[in-house]
Write a structure and sequence with these properties.
Elements (H helix, E strand, L loop, with lengths): L4 H26 L4 H14 L5 H8 L1
């Protein structure tokens, strides 16, 4: 059974939409405006240790 031209159109349209969406997300993630936010997020796990007391650090290591 061969797909109809309408089905082929919608499959092609969905593929193009998904590709454009992917490209937009990549450009958004690599834009200079987001750099500071991503650097802050990358440091989150390391910065959490600064707020712990000495006793909490010892308990976390056990």
């Amino acid at each position: 059974m061969e797909p109809s031209s309408t089905e082929v159109f919608w499959q092609s349209a969905w593929t193009v939409f998904a590709f454009v969406f992917f490209v937009v997300v990549v450009f958004w993630a690599w834009s200079g405006k987001r750099k500071e936010h991503f650097e802050e997020a990358a440091r989150m796990a390391l910065d959490d240790d600064k707020d712990l007391t000495a006793e909490q650090r010892r308990n976390a290591q056990q």
